[in-house]
Amino acid sequence: MVNLQEKAWQIRQDVVTLIHKAGSGHIGGDMSVTDILVTLYYKHMNCSPENQNDPNRDRFLLSKGHCVEALYCILADKGYFPKSDLDNYSGYLSKYIGHPSDKVNGVEIGSGSLGHGLSYSIGMALAGKMDGAPYRVYTVMGDGELAEGSVWEGAMAAAHYKLDNLTAVIDRNRLQISGSTETVMAQDSQEERWRAFGWHVLSVDGNSTKALDFALQEAKQIKGRPTMIIANTTKGCGVSFMENQASWHHKSVDDEHYELAMRELEQRRAAAHEQDCE
Question: Which of 40, 117, 137, 197 could form an S-S bond across to 155 if both were Cys, CB 3.0 to 4.6 Å?
Answer without folding.
Answer: 197
